[in-house]
Amino acid sequence: MSILHKLHEMGQSTWLNYMRRAFMRSGELRRCLEEGIQGITANAAVFQTTIAQYTDYDQAIHDEVRAGTPYGRIHTALMVDDVQRAADILHPIYEESEGLDGFASLELNPALAHNAVETVATAGHILARIDRGNAMVEIPATLAGCTAVRSLTSDGVCTNATHIFSVSAFERVAQAYICGLELYFDTHSVWRIAPTAVASFSVGAVDAAVDPVLAARGLVSWQNQTGIALARVLYTRYQQIFSGPRWAKLARHGARPLRPKWVRIHPHNASQPLTFYAEALIGPHTVLTFAPDTLEAFLRHGQAAPTLATGLAEALAHLERLQEAGIDLEAMTDALQTEHLAFSIRQYEALVESVADKLYETGK
């Protein structure tokens, strides 16, 4: 039994942020599942790097060209195919967990993040092509994204709310999800498994933004604490939101809460071990998301102890002293969402361009 299975016994799920065709064909994904991985997410950055630097997709790209697929849509066809493959491999976990885990999560074009109508339409179109019950779409948690989460949830779609850097952003998407579930149960007389969702909170990205400000003010001893502090406060709000009479009514229908999903857990500070964030974020009803390097480090050196629910008083004290020091954390996290969303858009555009570059390099 690996250390990931110990986390499962504590009520925590473990997913992997890495989807690549050779990774699935080689059997590496299945080996990760044996170690305890229970879900997988795909993003444009991994696809772009793989297309540009490796041969995984060369034949598939040329097949799409011969089939008449426009250049600007080839990347979508490749991603859809990979999600189908991953979803099929993960399906036993989906069934065993009764729809809690076993998902393959696909990033939509982040340029749609401020258009709820187009987001919902695009999600519906892509999910219809994927045609797998354990496929999940990623929706940035902008105001429009929250509207899209509400609409998609009401239609029974499972979502992964992304680009969350603050407790308030989690609260907004949680309320949207709850409203969507209420509509779903009001409009569906029969269902086997209710839609579920996760909310991806970028832990390390917060420290990467805050720590340079602290260093500039001579507050080095405060570094490497803000991301974990926010995660612990977010977890407390999660417990509060998904309790009480309103939630109990939905839970009786089989609704599941919007689980916090800890992402970007690679420490930005090279002095920290790769297991730094993972070991601090262990707690039930959450999802710990690894990249390949953090997964390997955690499997080798990680310690499994219930850490997430501890240290709330210290977390609140840390956030309070940031405020007293004049650091506007809410403004910083709002800016982080804007910056990371702009970066995601550039990555997605680079993915589209990498297909055309590959065709040029290989002579079409």
What is the fold named in CATH at topology level?
A: TIM Barrel
CATH class (first level) name: Alpha Beta
Question: What is the N-to-C order of secondary-structure elements (H for helix, E for strand)?
Answer: HEHHEHHHEHEHEHEHHHEHEHHH
Largest sheet: 8 strands, parallel, barrel
Distance between the termini: 48 Å
The level of helicity is 55-70%
Give the class from helix and strand content and strand pairing.
alpha/beta
> What's the alpha carbon Rg, rounded to whole Å?
20 Å
Question: DSSP strand (E) fraction?
Answer: 5-15%
Count of runs of 4 or more consecutive helical residues: 16
CATH architecture: Alpha-Beta Barrel
Number of structurally distinct domains: 1
Number of strands: 8
Spatial strand sequence of the major β-sheet: 1-2-3-4-5-6-7-8
Uncertain residue segments: none
CATH homologous superfamily placement: Aldolase class I
Average pLDDT over all residues: 95
The dominant shape is: globular
Your description of this structure?
- Strand 4 (135-140), helix 8 (143-154) and strand 5 form a beta-alpha-beta unit.
- The protein has 364 residues and is of the alpha/beta class.
- The chain has an 8-stranded parallel beta barrel, surrounded by 10 helices.
- The protein has helices spanning 3-9, 21-25, 28-35, 44-53, 58-66, 71-96, 116-130, 143-154, 167-187, 203-216, 226-241, 244-252, 276-280, 292-301, 312-324, 329-361, and strands spanning 13-17, 39-42, 104-107, 135-140, 159-164, 197-202, 259-263, 287-290.
- The protein is built from 16 helices and 8 strands.
- The model has no long low-confidence stretch (mean pLDDT 95).
- The N and C termini lie far apart (48 Å).
- It has a single domain, classed as TIM Barrel (Alpha-Beta Barrel), CATH 3.20.20.70.
